[in-house]
Amino acid sequence: xxRYTPPEQGKAGQIFDIVVVVVAIFVALWLPLxxxxxGAAKSIDALDAKTWEALGQNPTMASIWEKLGYTPxxxxxxxxxxxxxxxxxxxxxxxxxxxxxxxxFLFRASDREYRDVINEKFDDK
Amino acid sequence: xxxxxxxxxTAIHGDRVSLLRVLxxxxxxxxxxxxxxxxxxxxxxxxxxxxxxxxALIVCWVVGLLYTSVAMIDSEVTSTVAAAGGxxxxxxxxxxxxxxxxxxxxxxxxxxxxxxxxxxxxGDTIVAKAGVEGLTHNSFIAxxxxxxAWLNYRGVLxxxxxNFVITxxxxxxxxxxxxxxxxWTQGAVLKLNELVTPGNALPYGWIGVIAAFQFGIWYYLGxxxxxxxxxxxxxxxxxLPYGTMAGMITLLIAAAMTWYVCASLMPWxxxxxxxxxxxxxxxxxxxxxxxxxxxxxxxxxxxASANGCINDAARAWFSLGRDRYLPTWFSAVHPxxxxxxxxxxxxxxxxxxxxxxxxxxxxxxxSILSGVLQYxxxxxxxxxxxxxxxxxxxxxxxxxxxxxLPAIVxxxxxxxxxxxxxxxxxxQLIAMTIFYFLISLWxxxxxxxxxxxxxxxxxxxxxxxxx
Lengths: 125, 467
What we know:
Chain A is mainly alpha-helical.
């Protein structure tokens, strides 16, 4: 097998590639934050009666909240801010498909590249 | 980890890196624990938010099993692929260039977002301690990231030796806190029975336990970084398994002590949202000495971790440039300080930007996502490694027992963790995976043309079976 000689990349090409990588990083990490897609999916189950008993706190818990500087009113939004674990099947299926598709592509494309590497490495000997 | 990197850097001649074998098992232990310990000071407790206090304990041990599998697998592959870059070098030799490119990105993002989390923790802790109206964490975050990047730019041997010392101080502070609260008696200081009751131990039931896996990862995330030192340890066959497993045992003990003290001192709803559970635990003991000790330890753990993260992320990015996976511009070594300065400077604004726009649990989730993708790769990687070079065909520094059980356990726990991330942070997971998919297309169909094929394989092994 003939040895592959990669082209030399000019400065402009390098700068362009760096810009592509930077943009990709910011889109991937920043966009979910900007669109509110990142972070915990929680919501507050509001209570009318804001007492330690109503919030499910026993005297020991209540004394610790107070030691930390909270009242039943200020602790309400912390205690009642809950996850609601309802499995959204379409989203779960999309997530699984994206993950599986990603890994399948990764291993298959890597294998094609790897064969080039092995052929060149061992055919040289 | 950081000292290992420095060892590499001091041996750089031009663009070529030659390594000095000077490290022993104790260094490997310090590399792993140094970067991970901050997880006890913040992050793990968000698992209580997702599943309750008991769920946080369950995942502490089950995720400990995941990481024990990681450590066993990593020890075998790394003691054989004794090349700088850890999992990146492994992927290059066992799976292929595209996988190596992705693994390096996993490392860079896991460590950069861990650095971001450390900086946010440090800034918020100082602001909370100061208690000054209108004071924000931004200046502290910026100062932390910039100063540590500058230290890394300049060459960091002394700083990183100090890193080990401050990690030890942070670890000892957890032990001191544990023994100061009379852990063998309940009621005096600790009130576990009254805070974790049958009614609130698992507020979301077992689905909450599964959901808690996401932040359970944070107890140990980064221990796999011990492999970055593969080329610098005197005896990889001995040092890597001993050092890594000793690190895991140390962290399991610290995690159990941390959970026990924190769950016995604060209600799970508060434990699940606080940014500094150990410092809060120190406060709740009523001892000013413990409060101040845990405040300082929180800062030290965050600093040590952030410093190691900058070092590791920059090295992974540097390696991508050196192998032409990214523009070779990144592979430059500073002529005076012998550091990968362009990679350090490139990652600096990215870390700063996300430290300002993300909050702590978002940054931690970004880091965890990259970590879990990497662990999934590792479980498949070891199967391919054993298939391409069965036992006896090459000399292995260490052969892990019970194969393929650890790989299967690791893979199953990764699947559970992906589901856990879906429960509450699913959109973030999809967005990150799409990013990795698109950047992989870019690499495979465009960037790979600049890569020298045969040069990717540097190990003196026979041709892999099946090729």
